[in-house]
Design a protein that fits this description.
By secondary structure, the chain is an alpha+beta fold. It has six domains: 2-39 and 157-184, Phenylalanyl-tRNA Synthetase, Chain B, domain 1 (2-Layer Sandwich); 45-153, OB fold (Dihydrolipoamide Acetyltransferase, E2P), CATH 2.40.50; 208-399, Phenylalanyl-tRNA Synthetase, Chain B, domain 3 (3-Layer(bba) Sandwich); 407-477, 2-Layer Sandwich (Phenylalanyl-tRNA Synthetase, Chain B, domain 1), CATH 3.30.56.10; 496-693, Bira Bifunctional Protein, Domain 2 (BirA Bifunctional Protein, domain 2), CATH 3.30.930; 711-798, Ferrodoxin-fold anticodon-binding domain (Alpha-Beta Plaits, 2-Layer Sandwich). Helix content is 25%, strand content 27%. A seven-stranded mixed β-sheet has the order 28-31-32-36-35-34-33, with helices on both faces. A five-stranded antiparallel β-sheet has the order 5-4-3-6-11, with no helix packed on it. Helix 5 packs antiparallel against helix 8 (372-386). It starts with a strand and ends with a strand.
Length: 799
């Protein structure tokens, strides 16, 4: 943003030089990126008058002018279209030196197409006074001929400053002046009047209707009649040009000037173009469109807030006005709008439409709701003065209750400890009150402050107040203190655990995702685990798509699946490890680490023939999880049927580690995959890493590989349908059969031949000794023992 040294002095008594002001701006936290001197007319440029003009014989566009410089008449060849007789213009006399980048050039006597010329008549851009280069700069007739032009100009210094997102209050001269006054102790001059006379009779209460009160809790309007649209006075144009705003007409220029002055974007409508003489603040209807002041047509959605009349939108709220209802040369009656619009809504509309403006820049960062009425008063005052409005209505206001002011308790000693320097208690109070904080209560040990409306976006606690004290007291006064810190072994262990887990999952064939920790609310609550009340939200989100912190990694993986499938990539195996957040601590800790896995499509797309047709299933996912758990050598983990709304009830398992629930895995419900156009089911796992990393690990001993052959036996039996594979494996393991090396199920069959409510299960058993070759008698003895115990212990029918 650009600010003018000359304009800033209208709001604060500045005794600082432009160079000193640059340093002070840096001290209060503004980063000065560039300092530019403007309006410094070179010595040798004087006021002159064109006496006559005739066409150059050897040129179609040049003219030969007789110019009186106050003492004599000289001849000058000029190519400007407005070098007419009678005009008062700037004249650069012979010897005048102009800057030209890093170099200079000097005006000399010369011949142009054979005709002598004794100087140069100048445009405003050639003098560095503005960007206007359409012709000669025409000076007022009151200027004395022959006088240096510098006697009538006011050199200025323009600062380009970088405004941090947490300081929307600096997007105005008044906001910057207020902080400078706190730093320097200078007096302030608030420009807005306390009130203005209202002479326009009638009932105006029905002029404004606000339907979308959530997006516009405060809307004010004022009618001004019999205004005269004309060119702005030179002081107003100069103030706007200094900060890079192009003057248009007195009405529009006033709204831009007040915006720079007080930080509140305003808009003016031509009353005759407002159908039904009624303003409606509402959400746009689907299919509506508007032609904005930039001449482009924009398609609107129900998420966009608009200002409308009884027929159609006439402005995109907080972004840009409509071409149809703007002020034109013959406008006489206007409606002055001053309102507060929801920052997230303005930001989302501006980004979606690709339409940015000075207004949207301020609204999306958070305008000061307390400045709405003063800005309207100030603009109305200037319209009365500069556009001769002779009838003004009372202020029409549609307002929702203001939120309760934020109250912060501050302990003086706590601030001193935070800053590491000794600041007097009275000095703290003085600094904060000069910045607009109001003391509610005070005692010897501390004080309670009310946060002003222009600082509600970044002041939340005692540490923020300490930062304000340090900023004004002087960051250069902070003492140099040696840092004393110790390295934590716990953090190193956590990093090691994460690294090992990533390597194990990558070795299982998965690709790691890294997604944004912010997401939209609809994605966050999809699946039924979390509600809107469980979400942690930033106070000033960048957009509605990033309006809350992710409560789980599942939506992140779903979005990645959707992105890939939309690009014809159907064979996917992803995982992500990251922080997730939940406001409801009865469900989960406020912040925790989570692992999420997602697989879908072909299990082996790199292979050939029938192997390429094999699709991922639940057991592939379970195998990936088990391989990771086994790699960590966990002492105790198991799976059991689970219930999680994100997974189908018929395909959901709960992971138990050391007797604690560590997560769920299964097939994603249709609600999560709706609209993705998957060709195969999506299987996902969600594991809480605090349970995984705190689990006990089993001791692992070296066991030599046996050099002797194994002996296999199969056992099959008919069992009840509710008998699980895990129960069978656990039962056989509990028998502790000698030399039993492995147990694996290889067949499950159900059908009429087996019987209703029953199934056939078949297992392969592998026996091997470490020191000899087993005999058939030894193996058969163990095998028969197994069959007998299966029949008696599990009540199965051996086959």
């Amino acid at each position: 943003m650009k600010i003018s040294y000359n304009v800033l002095k209208d709001y604060i008594d500045l005794s600082l030089t432009p160079e000193e002001l640059s340093d002070k701006l840096t001290m209060i936290g503004l980063e000065v990126e560039e300092v530019e001197k403007i309006g410094q007319v070179p010595a040798g440029v004087i006021v002159a008058k064109i006496l006559s003009r005739r066409k150059h014989e050897n040129s179609d566009h040049l003219s030969i002018c007789e110019v009186f410089n106050g003492s004599e008449t000289i001849q000058i060849v000029c190519g400007a279209p407005n070098c007419d007789a009678g005009n008062i213009i700037p004249l650069a006399t012979i010897g005048t030196v102009f800057p030209d980048g890093d170099k200079t050039f000097t005006i000399k006597k010369g011949k142009i197409r054979g005709v002598e010329s004794f100087g140069m008549m100048c445009s405003a851009r050639e003098l560095g006074l503005s960007e206007d280069h359409n012709g000669l700069m025409i000076l007022p007739g009151t200027y004395e001929l022959g006088k240096p032009l510098s006697d009538y100009t006011h050199p200025d210094t323009v600062y380009t400053v970088n405004i941090t997102p947490n300081h929307p209050d600096w997007l105005s001269y008044w906001g910057i002046a207020r902080d400078l006054a706190a730093l320097t102790g200078s007096a302030l001059h608030f420009p807005a009047p306390a009130h203005i006379a209202t002479e326009l009779a009638g009932d105006w209460s029905n002029l404004v209707e606000v339907e979308a009160t959530d997006l516009c809790p405060l809307y004010t309007a004022r009618v001004l009649r019999r205004v005269k649209v004309a060119e702005s006075p030179s002081w107003l144009k100069t103030a706007l040009l200094a900060v890079g705003i192009r003057p248009i007409n007195n009405i529009v220029d006033i709204t831009n000037y007040v915006m720079m002055e007080l930080g509140e974007p305003l808009h003016v409508f031509d009353l005759r173009f407002i159908k039904g003489e009624k303003i409606v603040v509402r959400r746009a209807n689907e299919g509506e469109s508007i032609v904005a002041l930039d001449g482009k047509k924009y398609e609107l959605t129900n998420n966009d807030l608009v200002i409308a009349d009884t027929e159609k939108p006439i402005a995109i709220a907080g972004v840009m006005g409509g071409e149809y209802s703007g002020v034109v040369n013959d406008t006489t009656d206007v409606v002055l709008e001053s309102a507060w619009f929801d920052p997230a809504s303005v930001r989302a509309t501006s980004r979606r439409l690709g339409l940015a403006s000075d207004a949207s820049y301020r609204f999306e960062r958070g305008a000061d709701r307390g400045m709405i009425v003063p800005a309207s008063l100030r603009a109305a005052q200037l319209i009365i003065e500069l556009a001769t409005a002779d009838a003004v209505s009372p202020l029409i206001t549609q307002e929702q209750p203001m939120p309760e002011p934020r109250i912060i308790n501050m302990k003086y000693d706590r601030v001193r400890n935070l800053l590491g320097m000794d600041v007097k208690s009275d000095c703290m109070d003085k600094i904060l009150t000069s910045l607009g904080f109001e003391i509610v209560r005070k005692c010897e040990s501390g004080a309670t402050f009310k946060v002003p409306t222009w600082r509600i976006y970044d002041i939340f606690g005692e540490a923020d107040l300490a930062e304000e004290v340090a900023r004004i007291h002087g960051l250069d006064k902070l003492p140099d203190v040696k840092i004393q810190a110790t390295q934590s072994d716990i953090s190193q262990d956590a990093i090691l655990h994460m690294t090992e887990l990533r390597e194990q999952l990558v070795s299982a064939g998965l690709y790691e995702l890294v997604s944004n920790s912010m997401m939209d609310e609809a994605s966050a609550i999809k699946g039924g685990i979390f509600t809107a009340e469980d979400l942690i939200r930033p106070y000033n989100p960048i957009s509605l798509d990033l309006s809350c912190m992710r409560p789980s990694l599942v939506p992140c993986l779903i979005n990645a699946i959707r992105y890939n499938v939309s690009r014809k990539n159907y064979d996917l195996a992803f995982f992500e490890i990251g922080h997730v957040f939940c406001k409801n601590t009865e469900k989960f800790p406020e912040e925790r680490d989570e692992l999420a896995i997602a697989i879908t499509g072909c299990a082996h797309p790199e292979r050939f023939s029938k192997e390429r047709t094999v699709k991922y299933d639940f057991f592939d996912l379970k195998g990936i999880v088990e391989s990771g758990l086994n790699a960590r050598r966990l002492k105790s983990f198991s799976f059991k049927p689970g219930s999680d709304p994100r997974f189908l009830p018929t395909c959901c398992a709960e992971l138990i580690i050391d007797g604690k629930s560590a997560g769920f895995l299964g097939e994603a419900v249709p609600e999560l995959t709706k609209g993705i156009r998957l060709n195969t089911p999506l299987f996902m796992a969600v594991i809480q890493l605090d349970v995984l990393f705190s689990a006990k690990e089993r001791s692992q001993y070296y066991v030599p590989i046996s050099q002797f052959p194994s002996v296999a036996r199969d056992v099959a039996f008919v069992a009840p349908n509710d008998l699980t594979n895990k129960q069978v494996i656990d039962f056989i393991t509990s028998l502790k059969l000698d030399n039993l090396e492995d147990i694996a199920i290889f067949d499950i069959f159900e059908g009429d031949a087996i019987g209703k409510g029953k199934k056939s299960m078949a297992y392969s058993l592998t026996f091997r000794a470490a020191d000899r070759t087993l005999t058939d008698d030894e193996v058969n003895a163990m095998y028969e023992k197994l069959r007998k115990n299966l029949a008696e212990g599990l009540k199965v029918e051996l086959r």
